[in-house]
Design a protein that fits this description.
Length: 193
């Protein structure tokens, strides 16, 4: 029986770093599900599962869904057949507590992460990208002030996740300022090595 490599990865990076774009390309190329926690929550709510009802109560109240509940959702999602040959988590983990819980969960499922990739992009480039995106999409929340605030929150809450993975020598940093195809080529090389 031939065993093909199953990539199980997360992509980290600040808002505007290009995570979503790369996630879609990798998902198509490797034929693995691109699991966005936001979409997963909306899916659970739409499916009216018990978990979905719990998630809905938090979302309706405008509150953050607690880590334990998100981890339960992820466990449920990763147990589905399409995740047998790997998966890509997007938008999770956002905190060190979530990263620790994810490690425990995945080790328990015998599906530890194979790659933790961070797209490094300087703030000025991120701000310009998000301002351009705001102009082209008409998103009113992409103003310089809002973007700078989102970056502050990101560095405060999510940047420690990079340090968490870095300490165990699992973090791979890639320059996210190259063209999309070049970044994708870098990631593809990593996943096939």
């Amino acid at each position: 029986m031939s065993h093909t490599f199953s990539p199980r990865l997360i992509i980290l990076g600040a808002p505007g770093a290009g995570k979503g774009t790369q996630a879609e390309l990798i998902s198509k190329d490797k034929k693995i599900p691109h699991i966005s926690t936001g979409e997963m929550m909306r899916g659970a709510v739409a499916a009216s599962t018990d978990l979905g009802a719990k998630v809905k109560s938090y979302l309706d109240a405008g509150k953050l869904v607690p880590d334990e509940l998100v981890i339960d959702l992820i466990k449920d999602r990763l147990s589905q057949p399409d995740c047998t040959n790997g998966f890509l988590l997007d938008g999770f983990p956002r905190t060190v507590a979530q990263a620790e819980a994810l490690d425990i969960l995945l080790n328990g499922m015998n599906k530890p992460l194979t790659h933790i990739i961070e797209l490094e992009v300087p703030d000025e480039v991120l701000i310009d990208r998000l301002l351009d995106r705001g102009k082209s999409s008409g998103r009113t929340d992409d103003t310089r002030e809002v973007i700078e605030e989102r970056l502050k929150i990101y560095y405060h809450q999510t940047a420690p996740v990079s340090n968490y993975y870095s300490k165990s020598n699992r973090l791979i940093e890639l320059r996210g300022t190259k063209v999309v195809s070049a970044i994708f080529a870098d990631i593809s090389n990593l996943l096939s090595s």
